[in-house]
Specification:
single chain; mainly alpha; 74% helix; 0% strand; globular; binds 4-amino-5-hydroxymethyl-2-methylpyrimidine
Length: 221
C-alpha cells in the first residue's frame, strides 16, 4: 500500500482539524516565533517529566504484546524507543536543574494525571498490539511535527529552547516516527474492522489529550 493511501494517512486527513490543532498549537507557535514566556516552558517541562515516566511503562507494555512473527527490525525499533526514553528522562532531569525546577516538588496537574491514566489503560492486555503501536506512533508523531516547526530555518526559537526542540525534531527521531507509522499501518491492515475502529478512536483521543496538554502548559503569568 502506498504511504498516502495507508490507514494512518487516511486518518490524518480525516481528522485534519484536530491534527492541526495538536501540532500547531499556540504554545509551540510562541516557541517558534520567540515570544514564549519561559514560565510556560518550565510548566511544560515539569509536567512532561511526569508524563514521560508514565510513557515508559506504556512503551514497555508493548513488548509482551509483540507478535512472535515480528521482524528483528521491529524489535529493534521498540528497544531503541526504550533506550531513547532513558536518555530523555536524564535530559529532563538535567534540564530541570538548568531551569531551577525541583522535579519532585512539581505537583501533577489534572490534565497530566488524566493523560497518564489513559496510558495506563492502553497498557492493559485488552488493547491489542495494533492499537498500542498506533497509539505509540501518534504520541511521538505529534511531538515530532510540533517541534519541527521550532527548528525550521525561519524559526526564531530562543537559544535556551533550541536543545529541547532538537530532541523531538532531529533526523533520528523523525526516522523513528516513520518506522512507527509503518508498523501501525502494517498491524492495522492485518486487523479486523472492530480493532481498526477502536484504534481510530484512540488516535482521536490522543490528539485531544495532546491539545489539552499544550493548553495546560500555556500560561499568562
Ligand atoms: C505530552 N506527548 C507528550 N509528551 C511527550 N514527551 C511526547 C508526547 C513524546 O515523547
Amino acid at each position: 500500500m502506498d504511504e498516502r493511501g495507508s490507514i494512518t494517512s487516511q486518518w490524518l486527513r480525516r481528522h485534519n482539524a484536530l491534527y492541526q490543532a495538536a501540532t500547531r498549537h499556540p504554545f509551540i507557535l510562541t516557541i517558534a516565533d520567540g515570544s514564549i514566556n519561559f514560565q510556560c516552558f518550565k510548566r511544560w517541562l515539569g509536567q512532561d517529566y511526569h508524563f514521560v515516566k508514565a510513557f515508559v511503562r506504556f512503551l514497555a507494555s508493548l513488548l509482551p504484546k509483540m507478535p512472535k512473527e515480528a521482524t528483528d527490525e521491529e524489535m529493534d525499533t521498540l528497544l531503541g524507543g526504550i533506550v531513547a526514553l532513558r536518555d530523555e528522562i536524564y535530559w529532563f532531569r538535567s534540564e530541570a536543574m538548568r531551569w531551577t525546577i525541583q522535579l519532585d516538588l512539581v505537583s501533577i496537574k489534572v490534565t497530566t494525571q488524566e493523560y497518564c491514566e489513559f496510558l495506563e489503560q492502553l497498557s492493559q492486555g485488552n488493547f491489542e498490539y495494533a492499537i498500542a503501536v498506533t497509539a505509540l506512533w501518534a504520541i511521538e508523531f505529534v511531538y515530532y511535527e510540533s517541534f519541527a516547526l521550532c527548528t525550521q530555518s525561519n524559526a526564531k526559537t530562543p537559544t535556551e529552547l533550541r536543545e529541547a526542540c532538537e530532541r523531538w525534531s532531529n533526523m533520528e527521531f523523525k526516522n523513528y516516527c516513520v518506522l512507527l507509522k509503518g508498523l501501525a499501518d502494517k498491524y492495522l491492515e492485518g486487523s479486523n474492522l472492530h480493532v481498526r475502529q477502536k484504534a481510530e478512536e484512540i488516535f482521536v483521543q490522543i490528539l485531544k489529550q495532546e491539545i489539552k496538554f499544550w493548553d495546560m502548559s500555556t500560561c499568562d503569568e
